[in-house]
Input
Amino acid sequence: MKLFLLKITLALLLFAGVASSCNPDPEKEYPQNISFTEYSLTDPSCRWVNLPYDENVLVINSYEELGKYISCEENSFPVIDFSKNSLLLASGKTLGGICEKKAKKLVLSSPDKYVLSIEITIDRSLYISEPWCITFLAEKMNKKNVFELDLTYLPQ
Output
């Protein structure tokens, strides 16, 4: 009987070990800072087109998708490794002239929600509505992820 209990205990321990190895990642803690690299069009023959300027973030994961928002002479798109990266494109409009704009941080706040913090320095003495666009590369992302923009407008 002791041998039988020992075998059952050993089998349960073995099963528990295998079951725990199926989920090698421990429970992730949130929020998590996500690294990114600002991206700009260096080729003067390229320009952004068809941007919604609706204060949302577009996740671009292929050259086909990129072709909807960029126009380059001779279709010479900039090189991006879409197997590892996503191009994130945020756009909107200000109520003043833009002096400076920069993405401050990208945070994964839950398993499928990101918060992108952007600071825009504006000159409110210019009574214009000016469109803005910020693009950057980050690790490959799923199109189903939800993005929230945290916009801060700073006076000049």
The mean pLDDT is 84. The longest strand covers residues 97-110. Helices lie at 2-21, 63-66. Strands lie at 32-34, 36-39, 46-48, 56-60, 70-72, 85-94, 97-110, 113-123, 130-139, 146-155.
